[in-house]
Design brief:
Helix content is 40%, strand content 11%. With 315 residues, the protein is of the alpha/beta class. It starts with a helix and ends in a 10-residue tail after the last helix.
Length: 315
């Protein structure tokens, strides 16, 4: 036993030589194999941004957890901060199957307001297209967005193939989609030009688009503000729209934007007046008056103060 103990002690004292070369320069199999020169290398695997995996967030347990969060946390918070007045839900009666809900975008509060406003059966199977470069730029942030609002990453600067394929697959599986075609929150309180993502997916998947106008969330939590200020809001649903025969996605995107503008006019005036201006081609644009900064600010303040009619242009 004594000889064995001495042998083990000497073995423990042996100093192994240190590796002078970094692991990347060691020969195979001490490092990963290299790609042959005649083979095109695979693209690097990313785990954030548009490549963020959200499939787990659509599983049964995740959906159950999200329903609990929605009913116990999201709904009370939305009711306290926004007190939404929901109009036009009767326009969805008689429709079945997945749909694309396309709304204007002024605040981070828009998403919870929409999630709590969209009725069944679409609400229980709803995914949200969220900006990949903002909501999925880190693992923690992306996981929270995927779990709490069923978000999945989309590229907002273009209709990316990966995002479009995922959205199309989800719609094909019976999921409805909430998307903000402006691509980001309004920087000054006025609307921005609608991009073609919602129109493209409606054309590709042959599903209707529901135009939605959200009014008042910019007063609560506009872009650049960190603390919300409670106020009242209005959520107006329009009649579902379908791509016309031979209609291109770009033209359909413009038609969706126009219909949301008509809903905005309906909120500040009435249904009949808004429809008359729509048929006459005089509906005020979501982007506001083409004027200097001071005029746009003045018009926006005036629009927020007066709920009976728009301050520009006069019909």
């Amino acid at each position: 036993m004594g000889g064995l103990s001495d042998l083990l002690s000497k073995a423990a004292d042996v100093q192994l030589p240190r590796l002078k070369k970094p692991l990347a320069k060691l020969p195979f199999p001490l490092r990963a194999p290299s790609t042959p020169l005649t083979v095109e290398p695979l693209p690097p695997v990313r785990k954030t941004g548009v490549d963020f995996d959200t499939e787990w967030a659509r599983s049964g347990p995740a959906r159950a957890a999200r329903e609990v969060l929605t009913t116990t946390v999201m709904e009370p918070v939305v009711q306290y901060l926004a007190s939404p007045n929901r109009q036009g839900l009767d326009r969805l009666e008689g429709y079945e199957g997945p749909m694309i809900f396309a709304a204007n975008h002024h605040s981070h509060l828009d998403t919870p307001v929409m999630i709590t406003s969209i009725p069944e059966p679409w609400r229980s199977k709803l995914v949200v297209g969220a900006a990949a470069d903002y909501f999925f730029n880190s693992r923690v942030k992306g996981s929270l967005a995927a779990l709490s609002i069923a978000a999945f990453p989309i590229e907002r600067t273009k209709v990316g193939r990966r995002s479009a394929d995922l959205a199309a697959d989800l719609i094909g599986d019976g999921w409805s989609l909430l998307i903000f075609p402006e691509g980001g929150r309004s920087p000054d309180g006025w609307g921005q030009e609608f991009r073609g993502g919602a129109a493209y997916l409606a054309h590709r998947c042959d599903v209707p688009v529901v135009p939605v106008h959200i009014e008042g969330t910019g007063r609560i939590l506009r872009k650049g503000r960190t603390l919300p200020k409670p106020s009242s809001t209005k959520v107006t649903f329009g009649a579902p729209m379908r791509v016309g025969e031979g209609e291109r996605s770009a033209a359909f995107a413009q038609r969706i934007e126009h219909e949301v503008a008509v809903l905005a006019d309906e909120v500040t005036t009435d249904w009949w007046s808004a429809r008359k201006r729509s048929y006459a081609g005089t509906t005020p644009a979501l982007s506001g008056p083409e004027a200097g900064v001071w005029r746009r600010v003045w018009s926006l303040d005036d629009k927020n103060k007066r709920s009976s009619r728009r301050s520009w242009p006069r019909p």
